[in-house]
Amino acid sequence: MEFLYEYGLFFAKVVTFVIAVIAIIAAIAGAAQKQKHKKGELEISDLSERYEDIEHHMLESLLSKDELKQREKELKKQHKEQQKKQKDGEQESAARLFVIDFKGSIDAREVDSLREEISAVLSVAKPSDEVLVRVESGGGMVHGYGLASSQLDRIRQQQIPLTIAVDKVAASGGYMMACVADKIISAPFAILGSIGVLAQIPNFHKVLKKNDVDFEQLTAGEYKRTLTMFGENTEKGREKFLEELEDTHQLFKQFVSEHRPSLDMAQVATGEHWFGLRAKELGLVDDIQTSDDYLQSAAKDKKIIQIKFETKKGIAEKLSKAASMSVERVVGKLWQNNRIFPS
Hints:
3-stranded mixed beta sheet, extended, alpha/beta, 343 residues, 2-enoyl-CoA Hydratase, Chain A, domain 1, 7-stranded mixed beta sheet, single chain
């Protein structure tokens, strides 16, 4: 009997342990499933309040108590008058300026967040509102930046004014996005332009041949593959590849010309880049101004709202992004080393 009692007690412990493990696994699986469905969330920030808080904090340090009291009375009076006018229908609600940031990578993967942000804005924006997109990108894959440009064009299609601000760089695919705007503003030494197409690929055929390594590639279709990394490239393949590059360049020039018809494409579509001051002379941008200046000026008569779609990333995706960013930093440094900088 004692043996059966001990065995029953042991069995009960095992069952309890197994149930606990199953419960933990189920909880983790449930959380993972929820995470899968909730791929991200929209963050909405009132930048107008932020500017007001900064101004108030500065004035608290600079004005006397009597001056602060007087200012608060005036602000309360102005606020009451505005509320009364809006109530009586004499004055409409303040126009809104929606702010979106786009810091593009080589593959333009940020376009997924851009899509969500623009969709959110378009669900509430009116023609009296405005959208400001701060673009920072040296370009990348054609299809990725083509889609990003199309997302921005959705704003134009809804007759909502679109302004692009370039504080650092909007070159190649970055400028493809920028040219969609009604207005482009640029910092004096931001980099713009680079309306051209680039493709480069290493070829290890000679190394493989030297080491008696055969490489086979089977295709159906004469131009399924033109240039390869391991096979022997032919003049015919190169010619076809160059033809494709030229066609892409023509499409790029056509796209820019449609959105900024006043540009001299023969002058600006050479693949060169220019600093903001020179870009304005060429017509690539409309005004020399930083996004901070633009927002601070707009805050006087518009409500400024920042929209950001934050995606939820798993550990594998975070590690992948970190590795990708490291590669892009190296590429960026190599790119910068071939550019002119002030001493």
